[in-house]
Structure prediction request, 118 residues.
Amino acid sequence: MKKNDLILIFLVAAIAVGALIWMQASKEPEADRWAVIESYGELVEVIPITESTEREIRIGDEAVYNLVIISQGEVNMIESDCPDQICVETKSASEIGDMIVCLPHQVIVYITDQPVEE
Prediction:
C-alpha cells in the first residue's frame, strides 16, 4: 500500500466514526419510565418520561379538576380543587413505583418501567 492509500482509508474511517457519533448524539433518548394517569378507574394517558419531556395534563372539567405537569424527568400534581390538597403537597414522582393520588377525585398518577397499553 502506498502512503496515499493509507491516508484515504484513515479519512474514510474518520468520517464514518464521526457520522456514527453524530447520529447517536442526535437521537431522542428512549424512555425507560412512563407516567400512567388514571381517573375513576379509567386510563387517561400514558406518557414516556425523558429529561426532555415537557407536558401539562388537565384531568377533569371546570368543576372538578387536577393539573399534572411533567418536566425535567419528574411528575408533579401542581393544582387541584379538592378540599385537602394532599395530592398537591405530595413530593414529585420520578422513580419507578412513585405515586401521586387524589382520593376525592379518584386520580392516580404512577411511574412504571413498562408502557401500559391504552
The CA atoms of residues 35 and 111 lie 5 Å apart.
